[in-house]
Amino acid sequence: MDEPSWDARACVERVRQGDEAAARDLVRHLYPVILRIVRSHLPRRTAEEDLVQNVFMKVFAKLHQFSSAVPLEHWISRIAVNTCINELQRERVRPELRWADLSEEQEEVVRSLAANEADLTAAQSLASRELVEKLLDRLGPQDRLVVTLLHLEGRTLEEIRGLTGWSTTLVRVRAFRARQKLRKHLRALMETKLK
Questions:
Q1: Coil, helix or strand for 51?
Q2: Nearby residues of 30 by Cβ (< 8 Å), 6 or more positions away
Q3: In this predicted model, which residue has the larger pLDDT, 32 or 119?
Q4: pTM above 0.85, yes or no
C-alpha cells in the first residue's frame, strides 16, 4: 500500500502548512484504505464515492487533531468506520423485510436452510449473500458493523476493539445481541411465508 519513500507524518505536516500537493499525495495514499472500509460498511442507499468524500472531508477537518501516537492508517480507519456508522444510523428507518421482498432464489435459500444444511448451488450462493444483506439491513448500524467485522470479515475481537474503540466485552455483547436479532428477523420472515 505505501511506497517506501512516502512518509505519512511528513506529509501530514506539509498538509497542515497548506501544501496542496501534499494533500493530493495524502489522498492518493489513503484512498485504498478508506475505499475498502466504505465498501465493507456501505449503507444501501449511499453512493460509495459520496461516502469516501465525506470521510476525506472529516479527515482534513480533523487533521490538526492527529498526534502521530498511532499510525495514520489506524486513525483514518476509525474516522471511516464512524462515518459509515453515522450514515447507517441515518438509514435506520426501514420497512420490515417480508417474504415478498425476496427473489425466487432467495426464497429457495431460506427453504434449503430451514430444511437441511446441504451445499448450495452457485445461484443459491449468490441469493444467500443477497439475503444476508437484506437481513443485515434490519440491524442498527452498530450491530451491523460488529456482525460484518466479526463474522463476514473474520476479524478478531482485538481488531474490532481497535477499530471501534469499544471494549472487548462490549464487542462480545453486541455480537451476541446482533445474532439474536438476525435470528428473530429470519424467524419473522419464515412466519410470514407460512401465513
A1: helix
A2: 56, 59, 72, 73, 76
A3: 32
A4: no
Higher pLDDT, 90 or 98: 90
pLDDT reported for residue 28: 92
Which domains, from first to last, does the chain contain? 8-90 (1.10.1740.10), 99-194 (1.10.10.10)
CA 107 to chain centre: 25
Tell me the DSSP string of 107-169: HHHHHHHHH--PPPPHHHHHHHHHHHHHHHHTS-HHHHHHHIIIIIS---HHHHHHHH---HH
State the average pLDDT over residues 57-69: 87
Residue linked to cell 437484506: 134
The one-letter amino acid at 167:
S
Cα–Cα distance for residue pair 31/56, rounded to 1 Å: 9
149, HSE (Cβ side, Cα atoms, 13 Å): 26
d(CA 112, CA 102): 14
Comparing CA positions, the residue from 33, 34, 51 lying closest to residue 42 is: 51
110, 135 Cβ separation under 8 angstroms: no
* C-alpha cell read off for 47: 453512493
Q: Which residue has the higher pLDDT, 110 or 181?
A: 181
Cα(192)–Cα(194) distance, integer angstroms: 5
What percent of the chain has a predicted confidence (pLDDT) above 90? 8
